[in-house]
Amino acid sequence: MSATSEVPAGFRNAAGDRGPIRLVTEGFNDVRSRRRLVRYLVQADIHKRGADTLLGNIWWVLDPLLQMVVYVVFLSIIVTNRPEDYPLFVFAAILPWKWFSASMTDATTSIVRQDQLIKQIQFPKIVLPFAAVYSGIANFAFGMIPLFILLLLFYRDRLTPNLLFIAPIAGVQFVFTLALGFIVSAINVFFRDLGNVARHVLRLWFYLSPGLYSMALLEHSALFEKSPTLTTLVNLNPFAILFTAYRSVIYGTDVPQGPPMAPDWAALGLLLGGSLVLLALTTLVFKRLEPSFAKVL
Question: Is 17 within 8 Å of 290 (Cβ atoms)?
């Protein structure tokens, strides 16, 4: 018996009879028409996070600060050529990365965590990874609190209107994260080891991204000066663009040292365009695989 024969006819038709454009449109409509369900899932996730730990959601304020301290202390020992005001330099990358890594971890298991619900109730499963990624926005907002504390206490010269550009930069990151969230949540239904692999991939991804160092320092290193191709590959890393954008509006430039400024809108526009294409592709894959979820789970 095929997997599609055990699911409702509506889902069989969606997976088998409709073309790619119809499936992608249906995926977007599924999320839009289930706004109340998404809101409920997001609220439940935020409440659960707050109830599961002693400090609750306050941990989202403390955790990036503690990570910043660890990296600054460790790198102060082994690295001498650090940018000026290094704590803020590192924090401007830790904050968006914590949002991304937490969202990816939650999205990966968003389908398999709701296996009993999926077996009992018919609803578009795409709302599950969407809610997992969307709830990360609230956590990212909590992370703005320690950022403004740092700026008010130690870096008042960097309190500029450019901080308002954090919102559109975060919007680009959300689209990119959502695209990856759809695909990892669907694949994890069939390959449960993906969650373990993803943790190591995310850790490696962060160290290969300019989170603890600047793109300017990397591009002026001997290895990259000898290999322009390597520089191009690094620049294609989405978080090379995102980290640079966040640093531009929060920290400024490091080589030479300059005040906060507007991000590179052209680079962000290219990343947004690529993320939208990726989102359409991963939505298509998700809708193709969706009819098999109930049987596999």
Answer: no
Please tell me the distance from the alpha carbon of residue 259 to that of residue 272, in angstroms, as a whole number. Answer: 26
Using alpha carbons, select from 154, 156, 176, 145 the residue that is nearest to residue 57: 145
Coil vs helix vs strand at 258: strand
- Asked whether 210 and 124 are in contact (CB, 8 A), the reply is no
DSSP string, 197-257: HHHHHHHHHHHHTTTSS-HHHHHTSHHHHH-HHHHHHHHTSHHHHHHHHHHHHHT-EETTE
65: Cβ–Cβ under 8 A, 6 or more apart, which residues?
91, 146
pTM over 0.85: yes
Report the length, in residues, of the chain: 297
Distance CA 238, CA 217 (A): 18
pLDDT in tens, 191-226: 988 888 998 999 999 988 888 887 777 766 655 666
Q: Note whether 210 and 243 are within 8 A (CB).
A: yes
Place of tokens 């006819």: 9
